[in-house]
Amino acid sequence: MVPAKSTFLDAFSGSTVVSRYAKQLGFAVTANDWEPYAEALAQCFLELRQRPFRNVFLLASALPSIQKSV
Fold it and tell me: CA 59 to CA 23: how far, in whole Å?
């Protein structure tokens, strides 16, 4: 099975830990659960792309510090 060409079905996704692992392996992921919290977690961890957020933190850490005297 080639992850890049396969879909992983997580029928009871819950905390999405298994779905996130499948996504890291390169699978297209379909997650399902009855609970609303699982939908929120799936949207957060599975739908959002992580790279843009990493770049924001890298840029922010490179900013010069502001020193104020009190």
Answer: 26
